[in-house]
Amino acid sequence: MHKGRDVYYQPYIYAGDQKFRNGKYSEAIAYYEEALDIKELSSIYLKKSIANKYLFQWEESIAQWEIYLSIARLSKERREGAELELENLRFAKQQHEEYVASDFDYNIQKLRFSTEELEYFPTITGGDEHLIYTHRYISGSKPTDENLFEAALDGISKFGFPLEGNLNSRLNEGAACISPDGQFMVLTVCDRPDGAGSCDLYYSHWNPNYGWETPKPLPGALNTGRWESQPSLGPDGRTIYFVRASNSMEADRDIFVSTKDKEGNWSKGQKLPSNINGSDRESCPFMHFDGKTLYFLSERSPSLGASDFFMSTRINDSTWSDPINLGFPFNSFGEEFSLVIDKSGQFGYLASDRGEAIVPSYDGLSALDLYRFDLPKHLQPEIRDNYDLVVVDSLTLRSIG
């Protein structure tokens, strides 16, 4: 320690923080070490640990975090949180080692039609030919209106376009799912006069003459004065998995399932059991076409980032298998936000702010983009060789043909 220079340690921290924000983690660590050479502060060990993590220097990251815990003066609550983060670090180390050792090609690629604005909540159309997703415009530096877009999955399309018809407005429309035949959509609509309050689930039919019809609230008891959003239709068209909370910012987000009766009315919804809905926020459910494999987002620990993707299998109407963390590279140190898997179970699409790599891009933090990926066998749903497909009217449930 160099005595008498304590007053000068702050510039090294500021310089390290700037390098960190620009993704130059090795340079950030060098500045933090200069600061520590002048004054030992627990917060600097914390910063070093995080930078080491983004370089996948696991042993050093864990060691720095342990030093932080040994010298930091923390309240009981903050110490428990810090100890939990240490466990997350150890879990991330294990997950990353398994990822590196795997010979599977995950083939994660950013979709060409992802822009500098925000794209998320992907949903695959029935023929796997198009992706419908939520596009959020940016005005200045602030996100504004949400609308539903569509883009071709031909590998060459550079642009997505607003959905045809009467879906989008000056209010927020997004987080949609579509029936296998491509004729019926459930979407999230917010702050409309005909809604029950906050955000609600609406439906729309495809009209071949002009596109999607004006959305209407789902009939029945599903919509309440609370926040309902992020629907996922079951393959039978009679169940919807969705998220309910006090409002979009509250910590009480949980996943519910609603069923449709013979009259076309949707039930209020039943909360999924406690091994799915824990004490942390759960969101972004996706029920696969097999009708029993659920993928969802959770802030539970152990985890790799702020929120991770998990999967669980429905055993019967009230029992689900314990969720499995999908691990690297589906989860990153950044923010994950919605995932879908195609009918074959072999590939899918996700939204993330990870930038061009697993490490998040700090030039555009929270700039959610869409990615395609291949799915390894152990994370795939159970797929039968053949499915019996019956096309039914989405309201009457009568067979169309």
Helix and strand arrangement:
Layout: H1 9-21, H2 25-38, H3 42-54, H4 58-71, H5 76-101, E1 109-110, E2 118-124, E3 130-139, E4 142-152, E5 161-162, E6 173-178, E7 184-190, E8 199-207, E9 211-212, E10 216-217, E11 227-233, E12 239-245, E13 254-259, E14 270-271, E15 282-287, E16 293-298, E17 308-316, E18 319-320, E19 324-325, E20 336-341, E21 347-352, E22 369-374
Antiparallel strand pairs: 1-22, 2-3, 3-4, 4-5, 6-7, 7-8, 8-9, 8-10, 11-12, 12-13, 13-14, 15-16, 16-17, 17-18, 17-19, 20-21, 21-22
Helix pairs in contact: 1-2, 2-3, 3-4, 4-5
Structure in words:
This protein is of the alpha+beta class and 401 residues long. The chain folds into two domains: 6-101, Tetratricopeptide repeat domain (Serine Threonine Protein Phosphatase 5, Tetratricopeptide repeat); 109-379, 6 Propeller (Neuraminidase). The chain is built from five helices and 22 strands. Strands 6, 7, 8, 9 and 10 form a five-stranded antiparallel sheet that branches. Strands 15, 16, 17, 18 and 19 form a five-stranded antiparallel sheet that branches. Strands 1-22-21-20 form a four-stranded antiparallel sheet, with no helix packed on it. A hairpin with an 8-residue loop joins β12 and β13 (254-259). α4 (58-71) runs antiparallel to α5. The protein is globular and about 70 Å long. 37% of the residues are buried. The model is unreliable at 356-365 and 392-399 (pLDDT under 50).
